[in-house]
C-alpha cells in the first residue's frame, strides 16, 4: 500500500540471478491519486508526474530482504512554491521476510516519504492551512499462519505511521472448505486523530466483511 512498486511501468527492465533480483523503472504521466487541489475550482487535480526508481530483492540470511528507492519529479511544481500542487519527493522502502516456524511467515517493512523543497512549501501555504510533515514514516508488520494441512490461513497486516500518528489494521481468515469452495472473513480497521492524515481520513470507514467463493 505504501510501497513504491505501484509506480512501475511496462518499461521496467530487470535482471535476475538464482538468489537476487534487480530492477530499474520509470514512469511519465500524472499523479495516480490527487496530487494537488485547485482552490479556485474547489476540486482535486492530477498534475504531471515523472518517477524514476531502482529496487533489489534477494536472499539474506534465513529470509528474504528488499530495498527500493524512488524519485518523484513533480513536473508542474519543481520549485516547490505552488501550494496547489504536491512537491517533488524522495521515497525509500526496506523490508525483510522470514519463516521462523513451519507455516508461519513474519514480514516487516519501513517506508519513508520525504518532501523536497520543504521551506518553499511552508512559505507558500495559505494562512490556516494544514501543514504536512517533511518526512512521513510508515512501519508495516505482516503475520501469516497456515493450519490444517494449509487449508486455513490466518493473517494480520498492520500499518502504523509514527509521524502521522495513525494506523490501519487488516485481519483476515481464509478457509478452503473443498477444492471448489472457499470461505473468507476479515476487516479493515482505521485509526487516526486527524482527518488530513493518510489513514486518519478513513477512520469512519472501519468495516468487517465475509464472503463465499465457488471455483469451477
Structure description:
With about 220 residues, this protein is mainly β. The chain has 2 domains: about 1-140, no CATH class; about 150-215. It contains 1 helix and 13 strands; from the N terminus they run ββββββββαβββββ. The strands form 2 sheets. An 11-stranded antiparallel sheet has the order 1-2-5-6-7-8-9-10-11-12-13, with no helix packed on it. The chain has a two-stranded antiparallel sheet with strand order 3-4. β3 and β4 (about 45) form a beta hairpin. The radius of gyration is 20 Å and the shape is globular. The two termini are about 30 Å apart.
Give the helix/strand layout.
Blueprint: E1 13-16, E2 20-30, E3 36-38, E4 43-45, E5 48-60, E6 63-73, E7 89-101, E8 104-115, H1 118-124, E9 135-147, E10 152-161, E11 166-176, E12 181-192, E13 207-214
How is this structure best summarized?
The chain has 216 residues and is mainly beta. The protein folds into 2 domains: 1-139, no CATH class; 148-216.
Share of helix, binned: under 10%
Number of helices: 1
β-strand percent reads over 45%
Mean pLDDT: 91
Order of helices and strands: EEEEEEEEHEEEEE
Count the domains: 2
Largest sheet, spatial ordering of strands: 1-2-5-6-7-8-9-10-11-12-13
Tell me about the biggest sheet? 11 strands, antiparallel
Report how far apart the termini are. Answer: 31 Å
Indicate the low-confidence ranges by residue numbers: 5-17
Tally the beta strands: 13
Radius of gyration: 20 Å
Helical/strand content category: mainly beta
Silhouette: globular
